[in-house]
Specification:
6-stranded mixed β-sheet; 8 strands; 12% strand; elongated
């Protein structure tokens, strides 16, 4: 089969030859007396113009057809990948429903005490929390922004050695003394020397809480926010590698892919993101559905971050899970 580049070269060679012959045929001083006839010369020009136009048409048509074919091929390939991805996610949801029935309920690593900051909170309570925050270097953080009910709040877990402190902070409707006091608490929490763990990139989600100066003036260093979603995927794939007979197994890299047949690797494409519930389920074999219990979500981030930070191996996870049975 002749390559498209060869066809183009051949057609261009013919065009070049015609263009070289064209002036000699139409304007050569030594041409025959027939060619010197104005009528003949006129018809020669028309004929050559027709041939050149036809050849240009063939070239353009060939180029257009080639790129249309490449576009169709790319579209089919993209559609196939999308269908496989959709099918994989559908099967994943079906498998999750079946597995969750037999899983134990989510258990946080530590006990915790809860505070709720709203319009009725006392200044003394916030002072207590500011002191607690100053003694803490690591936090877990989630936001909730319901567009329908316009209810907005965020939850922060103060991760401490013995027991955690959970703080639910409502979004104030207007700036006041209590709001300013809460802003002082947030300044301590989001200090650049601390680490605030999240699940996913929540930086832009903070714009809905600009009643607080720390979010309004973007006084948060991005380095303070640690996206555990990305860290978890790296840790999990490192410790829960492909089976020996898996079609996705490569010697030089361990990635998710459509050829994977491992039941412990639910995601089959490199760009897939782990949901918090799936991460808990596959790591700790616990039923963790993302309901309206946002405190549990915060505690789940902390539980996953603990094994990542301490570099637990697959064997350590298995021993931990066996111990809790």
């Amino acid at each position: 089969m002749i390559h498209n580049s060869s066809i183009y070269s051949y057609l261009l060679l013919i065009l070049s030859s015609i263009l070289n012959i064209y002036p000699s045929v139409c304007y050569n001083e030594t041409s025959t007396s027939i060619n010197k006839d104005p009528t003949v010369r006129k018809w020669n020009i028309i004929t050559w113009d027709f041939l050149v136009s036809m050849l240009l048409g063939i070239i353009i048509s060939t180029v257009v057809n080639h790129y249309q074919f490449e576009l169709i091929k790319a579209t089919i390939q993209s559609s196939t990948e999308a269908i496989l991805n959709m099918y994989s996610k559908h099967n994943e949801k079906q498998n999750v429903r079946k597995i969750m029935k037999d899983l134990k309920t989510f258990i946080p690593l530590k006990s915790f005490k809860t505070y709720h900051i709203d319009s009725d909170t006392s200044m003394e309570t916030i002072d207590i929390l500011i002191d607690e925050a100053k003694q803490t270097q690591r936090f877990s953080f989630i936001t909730h922004d319901n567009k329908v009910s316009e209810k907005k709040f965020f939850i922060i877990e103060f991760i401490q050695p013995s027991a955690s402190v959970i703080v639910i902070i409502d979004r104030f409707q207007e700036s006041n003394v209590l709001c300013n006091k809460t802003d002082n608490l947030l300044l301590v929490i989001f200090n650049e020397s601390n680490c605030v763990q999240t699940w996913g990139d929540i930086f832009h989600g903070l714009f809905g809480f600009q009643i607080y100066d720390i979010f309004l003036y973007e006084r948060i260093d991005r380095k303070t926010l640690l996206n555990m979603e990305d860290n978890f995927k790296e840790w999990y794939n490192k410790n829960f590698s492909h089976n020996e007979n898996c079609g996705q197994l490569l010697d030089f890299i361990d990635i998710d892919g459509p050829l994977c047949s491992c039941s412990h690797r639910p995601y089959k494409f490199p760009e897939d993101k782990w949901s918090l519930s799936m991460a808990i389920m596959y790591t700790f074999h616990e039923n963790f559905e993302l309901s309206h219990d946002y405190i549990q979500q915060c505690l789940a981030i902390t539980k996953l971050s603990h094994v990542i930070e301490n570099e637990w191996t697959r064997e350590q996870i298995q021993c931990f899970n066996e111990h809790l049975k």
